[in-house]
Amino acid sequence: MMPRFEHFPHDADIGVRGIGARKSDAFEQAALALSAIVTDPETVAPSEKVEVECVAPSDQLLLADWLNRLIYEMAVRHMLFGRFLVAIEAGRLRGQAWGERLDPVRHAPAVEPKGATLTELRVEPYGDGWVAQCVIDV
Amino acid sequence: MDIGGLTKIGDTQWQVPKRGGMRVPGVIFADAALVTSMDDKVLQQLCNVAALPGIVEAAYAMPDAHWGYGFPIGGVAAFDPEEGGVISAGGVGFDISCGVRTLLTGLTRADIEPVKMALADSLFQNIPAGLGSTGKISLEPAAMDAMLGGGAVWALAQGHGRPEDLERMEEHGRVVDARPDFVSDQAKRRQHDEMGTLGSGNHYLEVQEVTLIHDVATAAAFGLKQGEIVVSIHCGSRGLGHQIGTEFLREMAEAAPGFGLALPDLELASAPITSELGQRYLGAMRAAINCAYANRQIITHLTRRVLAHFFPGGGFDLLFDVSHNTCKEEWHLVGGKRRRLFVHRKGATRAFGAGHAGLPAAFAAVGQPVIIGGSMGTSSAILAGNPPPERAFASACHGAGRAMSRHAALRQWRGREVVDRLAERGIIIKSPTSRGVAEEAPGAYKDTGAVVDAAHAAGLARKVARLEPIICIKG
């Protein structure tokens, strides 16, 4: 299964959906979908790495924690991310995000993600792989 | 939404009969066309809210209700702490105390037109807007806590505004019992350099013309005159509120089973008001409300400086400041008995009527201004709260609500095209983001007029004035 991401509609905001062969792939793709709310991830240079770790009692809350941690890092570091690597083991996520400082002219950021909501929150098998999704409040 | 399953109470009031686990009925205030255009999920969310412990009277949906998070956006629900009532982080939302304030200028369109472009440029340069924008004020820990405890009162002490501004804000610009110590270091760090910033999305600063007066006497009491210019500012508690919402939503979702809450939707995550978690959220959320008051106060100060450059000697008085994402402790008459309730307004505006003890003296005889935001190309509105009997715990709508998702808007419009079309109508848009403008295109929003008409007809608030945009600084 080729990993991919997409957005899905919500009345006020926007849904992110990551699809991949492994759960961790789906989480990486969901993160790319989050970045793509703001800008084209392809335009973000992977010049700086940020490492994060999350622990949650369910895959669903782990996804929300992962995306919220990225939103936090984007906000306080004034960064955008364009590449992700995720490892998940026994409810613990170790993630790496590569990106650069936001350049308003070059990245032309569309909107600021406020938080990953628990709405339409799903992490589940999908075909031969996994899907990970939720709605982002922007 | 299928209107067939609702009981018609009147042309603008529909009841969702109790079913399943609902403790109270749902009530939708809207005309048939607005109800029909609402997503089915509004009905489901209204029913879910009606099933929460300690809910009083009904779960209400305003005319602009749309699919939200746990609660519908445009939702109102009150909970009694003495009956196991809950407080919900999802029911307040991420953008805690997002709201609108309007400044009176005493200027006319003829004053504005000769300097319109220069004024737009200056506002855009001086009011930080858009993702990644930072304010000139950086708050270190002690100052941050003082701000979170003091709200607009703190902002005033720092030189941002005038004492009389406080008279024109809910709670006089400062919610008591805010607990900065319940706000995480992460939330404070996120706010470190975001004071005095608009943010992005549907947040804006707009120069508007009063193009129609509906209620002459109330407009006079508000200082609104046809043909005069006002400035409206729409933003909230920025990163601090977002982080508080994120953290408490997560904590409440995990704690819910321990409180015996079986949630059909995790986003409804709540805690009993009297619980340690409920009290901690209440204290942190109140600090975020103060942050929003301080933020809008600083932006007001920046705006006045720009206006004073172009129009020396102007007063630029504050008409009023309303919040539309809050939970507030209020007293309401329910079944002939005064009760202390915690009223969630998610995308809904408080609308106290004449005689309410919480109103500034200037509005005691007419009720409070209820400010309804439009979009870049559509009108905004000023309404007034109606006297008792209260409807929906003295609440009204907050805006038009989206008619189309951001996704769909992006497929339909380009930012440049939106800006050019609005320019043809004499409206200047200044924004750091072309894509953001496309997502916020006026066509992506419902007609404010229909929503306001429904709120008026339903008795939630009465129409006072219509405002049309001239300049919009879009975050």
Please provide the count of β strands of chain A. Answer: 8
Helix content of chain A: 25-40%
Question: What share of the residues of chain B does DSSP label as strand, in percent?
Answer: 25-35%
Order of helices and strands of chain A: EEHEHEEHEEE
Number of helices of chain A: 3
Overall mean pLDDT of chain B = 95
CATH topology of chain A: Archease, Possible Chaperone, Chain: A, domain 1
- Over the alpha carbons, how many angstroms does the gyration radius of chain A reach? 14 Å
Topology summary:
The complex is a heterodimer of chains A (138) and B (475).
Chain A: E1 4-9, E2 14-20, H1 23-38, E3 48-55, H2 59-77, E4 79-89, E5 92-101, H3 104-107, E6 115-116, E7 122-126, E8 129-137
Antiparallel strand pairs in A: 1-2, 2-8, 3-5, 4-5, 6-8, 7-8
Chain B: E1 7-10, E2 13-16, E3 26-28, H1 32-37, H2 40-50, E4 55-69, E5 71-79, E6 86-88, H3 89-92, E7 99-108, H4 109-112, H5 116-126, H6 141-157, H7 185-191, E8 204-213, H8 216-222, E9 228-235, H9 238-255, E10 270-272, H10 276-310, E11 318-323, E12 325-334, E13 337-346, E14 349-350, E15 369-372, E16 380-385, E17 395-396, H11 406-412, H12 415-424, E18 428-430, H13 434-439, H14 448-457, E19 461-474
Parallel strand pairs in B: 3-4, 18-19
Antiparallel strand pairs in B: 1-2, 2-3, 4-5, 5-13, 6-10, 7-9, 7-11, 8-9, 8-19, 12-13, 14-17, 15-16, 16-19
Helix pairs in contact in B: 5-10, 6-10, 7-9, 9-10
Report on this model:
The complex is a heterodimer of chains A (138) and B (475). With 138 residues, chain A is of the alpha+beta class. Chain A has one domain (4-137): Archease domain (Archease, Possible Chaperone, Chain: A, domain 1, 3-Layer(bab) Sandwich), CATH 3.55.10.10. Chain A is built from 3 helices and 8 strands; from the N terminus they run ββαβαββαβββ. In chain A, strands 1, 2, 6, 7 and 8 form a 5-stranded antiparallel sheet that branches. The mean pLDDT of chain A is 95. Chain B has 475 residues and is α+β, with helices and mostly antiparallel strands. Chain B has a single domain (3-403, 445-474), classed as tRNA-splicing ligase RtcB. In chain B, strands 7, 8, 9, 11, 15, 16, 18 and 19 form an 8-stranded mixed sheet that branches. In chain B, strand 15 (369-372) and strand 16 form a beta hairpin. In chain B, helix 5 (116-126) packs antiparallel against helix 10 (276-310), helix 7 (185-191) runs antiparallel to helix 9 (238-255) and helix 9 (238-255) packs antiparallel against helix 10 (276-310). The longest helix of chain B is centred in the middle third of the chain and has 35 residues, at 276-310. The mean pLDDT of chain B is 95. Classes of the chains: A alpha+beta (138), B alpha+beta (475). At the A-B interface, strand 1, helix 2 and strand 6 of A face strand 4, helix 7, helix 9, helix 11 and helix 13 of B.
